[in-house]
Amino acid sequence: MKKEFTANTVDEAKDLAAAEFGADKSKITFTVIEEEKKGFLGFGKTDAKIIAEYEPSKAETAAEYIKSVLSCMDIEAELDITENEDGAVIDIKGDTTGAVIGRRGETLDAIQYLASMAANRSDKEYYRITLDSCGYREKRKAILEDLARKISKTVLRTGRTSTLEPMNPYERRIIHAAVSEIEGVTSKSIGEEPYRKVVISSVNGRPERRQGSGKKGSYDKSRRRREPQGHTSMDLMKTSFEKDYKKPKPEDTMTDGELYGKIEL
User: Does the pLDDT of residue 255 top 60, yes or no?
Assistant: First the structure.
């Protein structure tokens, strides 16, 4: 970004450039084209002329894009930028940020993705932009970790595989990290974006059924009731659909809505 500025003095011209770019003068490159001249008795007086060049950082580029989106949504908010080694975390602060977060953070994720595209469009080196609002990310992380522990406990007890609902890469990483800390279960991602989901499975497969030991309450296969001669077994009269209907499914799909409850901000 390059622009020419004219003022009574060089310092005043630099101040105009800083105000125009919305940046500190230390981050702007100045080239003085012409110094100011006082002249004599009002004759020969000329203004100072400079060229200011400013290249915003990727975090600033992302922040400007986010501001434009919020403006279109009629949302007034402040942006708090924290830069780190991998990128920057931009926190949206305001009273009406619920609309920015959206259902399960879908709106927040969409704005984050577009802001990342805007920040990285002119450079091959990727700069990570993380967008947050009112501590939503930490709250969502806690819910997902609790979900991973509950599902893992069920998988260990039943031996059955559980498939979670589709999640974005950020949330899938949270699930994988939580599962990796639990012994006896493993996780993997299946499917294609945006419907990619996490599958949690038992390392040892389905638990074995206990064999009858002759004790009270145990089941002895030898004591099965025999079918009377001359009568046809009911199993032989069942259709193929009835036989297959009660077979255990290879995977269980998560339908417990309460595990994915709305986060109260």
Answer: no
Judge whether 187 and 149 are in contact, CB under 8 Å.
no
Is the dihedral angle over the CA atoms 115, 117, 122, 125 positive or is it negative? positive
Cα–Cα distance list, 57 to 54, 123, 127 (Å): 10, 11, 10
Mean pLDDT in residue range 174-188: 95
- 88, β-bridge pairs: 83, 129
Asked whether the predicted pLDDT for residue 243 surpasses 60, the reply is: no
Which is nearest to 10 in space by CA: 23, 27, 25, 21?
A: 25
pLDDT in tens, 216-237: 444 444 444 544 444 434 444 4
Q: Can you give the pTM of this predicted structure?
A: 0.61
CA 173-179-182 angle, 5° bins: 155
- Please list, residue by residue across 198-208, b when 16 or more beta carbons sit within 10 angstroms of its beta carbon and e when fewer do: bbbbbeeeeee
| pLDDT, position 40 | 64
**Backbone torsions φ then ψ of 252, nearest 5 degrees:** -105, 135
DSSP-H helix ranges across the chain: 10-21, 58-72, 98-101, 106-120, 136-158, 169-180, 234-237, 240-245
What's the token pair of residue 127?
């700069």
